[in-house]
Amino acid sequence: MILNNFDDPSALFELTHPQENGNVFSVPYGSMLQTYYSFYADSANKRRRAAIGRIKSAADAAKEVAKAEKRVRKAFGKFPKDIPLETKSYGIDSKNGVDIEKVLIQTRKNIHATMLVYRRSGDVSVQPGILLVCGHSDAGKAAPHYQILADSLARMGMTAVVIDPLGQGERKLYPGLGFSSVREHNLTGKQLWLTGEFFGAYRAYDAKRAVDYMFTRQDIDHSKIGVAGVSGGGTLSSYIFALDHRIAAAAPSCFITRYMSNFDNELPTDSEQIPPGAWSNGGEMIDLIISRAPSPCLVLSVENDYFDPRGCAESVDEAKKIYSLLGKEDNIGMFVGPGSHDLPRELREATCRFFAHHFLGASEDVTVPEGRKYPIEELLVLGGKMTHQLPGEETISQHIAKKAELLAAERKRKTPDIAAFLRKALQIEKPTEVPEYSSLRSTVAPESSSVFGVKTEPGAMAILMRCKEKQTYFHLEECDHAVLYVGNIDSELEMSQMSVKPGTVVYAVDVRGTGKSRSLTCDHNEDFFAIYDSDYFYDATGKLLKRPLAGGRVRDLLATLKLLKTKCKKISVYACGIGGLLACYACAIEPENFDELILTGVPESWQSCINGKDIRWPQSIMLPHTLKHFDLPELYAHLSQKTKFQIKTQTQQVF
Questions:
Q1: Which structural domain range is residue 141 located in?
Q2: What gap in Å lies between CA 499 and CA 508, rounded to an integer?
Q3: Residues 6+ apart with CB under 8 A from 225
Q4: Do 357 and 436 belong together in one domain?
């Protein structure tokens, strides 16, 4: 078997997309995925509101706190077993009355983080400790607003610890690629899905290790540990507050809103902001705070934030109800500052006052000294090096690759049930039934003579096209043999570049969110594989709601095949790129629908993709926990036993 390892599925075809009124793409069913997921989003939202509405007493509130913690723990899983905490101080710089210590900490075996510790110069007292976790600034701990906040906290008599996140500051994950921190995070996140890990939990463990470090310092009051951060740091401060009860108070900024707000606003969030299943059972982002009620928390936002402050206010109202019933209404609050998504002076001062009030007994209007900021190079722990340059240090890809190798070794000791895993992962546990279909106007597909809508489930359908045929059909024609083409991103446009032998009955299918139903939401980049576009957005939504996007697409394909089987004695399925992998999943689940499966443009293996390079395959096709059950060569071998199967290296097929 010859495999062609396409690292970049966007390069499989040179597609010229239709233009209409100067806008790229004419997409007649571009609202399909928004409509489909709206139903499940609304259902989850109603369950949430109903559950909060039933809380009437302190006992009810206590039960809700326990439920919230259970939901959070289920989404994040367990932290790994700790290794011995190893730290190294690289000296202390005294700057204008504040000492800044430079520290290196080992968070996992052969993986280190750089940190700064701010304390008031000459102060030997035991102080509260505030962990600052950073948002998506490439400068990490040296970003100006974190410098200023840490310096202000130190001047008020609190020890501030600022840790570089993965992919930021002195911890670049993919040296040489030149990626932004968000792109590094999302690249890491989709690899971790394959090994069964959630990047948000991975990052939260870094914060836990920073708390472990704070507990080794005798100049920090271990009963007064706080956490704060903005944006991605607001995310992480909420996470570690929920997951580590050693943290007594939290002040997350510019993160907490409602999942429904993000969905309605078409806001794709980062890989670490998609706790799997968190929304499906009536959970919400504010559960991260409610799970710690009645511990003190100040939720901060800004007026012009894309993390909608209206959703933030609704969320805090839910928390206030819980805190009030528990007799601690004053322990939860909200502060909205001016400006756009950032950590402006007003939010920094509110954060300082919050911790000073709860940890130092200061009045709520205490004066906050304005902190200082310094050139980034003065705050480098490693003097210009990156952590990946340390002797024996592992890059994130090396770490994930080792996990993948361990999973491969475990698979050899047993015989995983590939079909059973796929049925569960894709939520296709019942046999596919013959669907209804409609005859659509052929103008939606100018390269095709006939177009049909295959009704796979409420709110979704596959677009089935009869290609390379002059006559228009308003019904599915009976035939002895048909070819079904399953495309990479646009089946009809890809088919337009292919040759067909005369007399061949050829169909092409666009599963939901591709081709004629490619979504018009989010930024709608010309590049289907853009990291924050609609494919990523709906995959993330599906993960939150336990309605996987890939599962819907496989249902579309299986329903289409089931329908064609009622008219065609034999069906040869030709599938390319993403469509090729979807066809593999479908064939593993219901091989009886496949007389022949021919693939092109599919990756050799997932494990080979974990190599420190960019992975252009979208997160939606990389199923969580896959490598615990199979890698692609095992899937291909399995399919070769179920049907006539081959992989070709030629992308532009001749039928």
A1: 65-367
A2: 14
A3: 128, 129, 130, 131, 211, 214, 246, 247, 248
A4: no
Task: Compute the distance between CA of residue 413 and CA of residue 432 in angstroms, rounded to an integer.
Answer: 33
Pairing of strands 460-467, 448-457: antiparallel
Q: Does 222 share its domain with 290?
A: yes
Q: Count of alpha carbons within 13 Å of 227, Cβ hemisphere only? A: 28
* Amino acid present at 512: R
Q: Please count the other Cβ atoms lying within 10 Å of the Cβ belonging to residue 24.
A: 12
Q: How far is CA 21 from CA 17, 18, 27, 171, 523, in A?
A: 13, 10, 13, 45, 18
- What confidence tens digit (pLDDT) does each residue in 575-600 have? 999 999 999 999 999 999 999 999 99
> Which tens digit of pLDDT belongs to each residue from 590-631?
999 999 999 999 999 999 999 999 999 999 999 999 999 999
Domain end residue (candidates: 367, 387, 407) = 367
* Beta-carbon contacts of residue 565 (< 8 Å; ≥ 6 apart): 571, 593
Q: Which of 192, 189, 225 has its CA nearest to residue 210?
A: 225
Which residues of the chain register pLDDT less than 50?
A: 1-5, 18-25
Is the domain of 128 the same as that of 234?
yes
pLDDT for the residue 23: 40
Which of 331, 349, 367 marks a domain boundary? 367
Same domain, 453 and 544: yes
Q: Does residue 407 lie in a domain region?
A: no
Look up the CATH number of the domain holding residue 26: 3.40.50.1820
Spatial distance between the Cα atoms of 94 and 125, rounded to a whole number of angstroms? 17
Task: Please state the length of the chain.
Answer: 655
Q: Hey, what are 461's tokens?
A: 């359908």
Does 270 reside within a domain? yes
C-alpha–C-alpha distance, residues 139 and 156, integer Å: 25
Residue type at 13 in one-letter notation:
F
Query: Among 431, 460, 480, 418, which residue's Cα sits nearest to residue 549?
Result: 460
Look at the chain and report how many structural domains it folds into.
2
CA–CA dist 328, 293 (Å, integer): 9
Residues 161 and 216 in one domain: yes
What's 469-514 look like in SS3?
A: CCCCCCCCCCEEEEEEEECCCCHHHHHCCCECCCCCEEEEEECCCC
Same domain, 337 and 427: no
Do 118 and 247 lie in a common domain?
Answer: yes
Element (H, E) at 62: helix 58-76
Using H for helix, E for strand and C for coil, what is the string for 137-162? CCCHHHCHHHHHHHHHHHHCCCEEEE
Say if strands 644-648 and 98-108 run parallel, antiparallel, or are unpaired. Answer: unpaired
Residues 466 and 511 in one domain: yes
Distance, in Å, from the CA atom of 616 to the CA atom of 531, rounded to the nearest integer, reads 9
Task: Give the SS3 label for residue 342.
Answer: coil
- Is 58 within the bounds of a domain? no
Picking from 547, 482, 492, 541, the residue whose alpha carbon sits closest to that of residue 514 is: 492
Give a yes or no: residue 402 inside a domain. no
Non-local CB neighbours of 655 within 8 Å, separated by 6+ positions: 483, 498, 499, 500, 501, 504, 506, 574
Q: What number of CA atoms fall less than 13 Å from residue 277's CA on the CB side?
A: 13
Query: How many other CB atoms are there within 10 angstroms of residue 54's CB atom?
Result: 9
